[in-house]
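Lab meeting prep.
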Amino acid sequence: FISMAKEVLCHNVLGEEFLVPASKLQFRPSVYGLLIQNGKILLSPQWDGYDFPGGGLKIEEDLEEALRREFWEETGLKVDVGKIIKASTSFYAPRPRSGEESVYWNCVLLHFLVTQTGGELSTANFDEAEKSYLGLATWLDLNKLEGLKFYNHLGSAGSLEIIKQAASQL
């Protein structure tokens, strides 16, 4: 048995890239929802940009359960999960929380269409970390998204493309 040290190219929320030993990666499946209504999409403000509501699965959750939970935590809305729009992977390094060591993720990211079934927009369900960078989810006009900054592995161009794909399937 011969072990070869392998490194992967990771990125962080600022778009910075750096090499990380593969042995330091943690597997993290994640789910995100695209809620489109009346010519608008609901996005989560993060720092000075946006992302789709969603996040990582807990070990005991299935995909739909995790997406319903994450969407509710980040928006206050209850949703039904529809068809998958995009599946992708990313090597990502989230910002470490105060006093914590850096974490590196091998992410599988699944983006789904969702439909609202209840709730009201709220920040009441944010965890302590989310309170430092997330804002109240915002409805944005589909025709006025050019130039928005997105904090995700897709970047702005990829995020706009996935929104276009989702809107075309309604």
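Slide two material, second protein:
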Amino acid sequence: MTGDIAKELYDWFADAKKIVIVGIGNPIRLDDNVGLKIVASLQGKVNSDVCLLECEMVPEDYLLDIEEFNPSHVLLVDAAKLGLKAGETRLVELTEVPGFSVVSSHVLPLRLFCEYIQKTTNAKIRLLLIEPKTTEFGEGLSPEVQATAERLIKLLISFLEFFLFLFLGKQ
């Protein structure tokens, strides 16, 4: 993970009012579980202007929850084979999604999921993608992906506290 991700997230969250963070992945496929682990680690550490969803492999099952929350920003966190070193990250815009081979077996392709959310909520949408080391069957994360997940959790908590306090006057 580079400092660029921190700056990109900082810039993207700058005008956030209500945020949905969606963890995507397969809990029994090692590093494919990173999105779920990150969202699970945020539980109880954010205020009510942040909706945390652990969607596993079916984010489309949460479309109504996202619509009803009416977010200004939606961040999807998932593992993706990007051709990078294990644990490296990218913050990807919706228009960039076809260029990536996201590790998933989602019933609805993520691009369609994101387009639907964007149309129904007018939210800004980004995918926070993390290069897996392995997606073999098993539990836990590789050391590289675990280290990245821990840094992202701290980063997300600090940004969510800062922006929601600064712009909404809430803690």
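Talking points for slide two:
Confidence is low (pLDDT under 50) at residues 99-107.
The longest helix spans residues 143-168.
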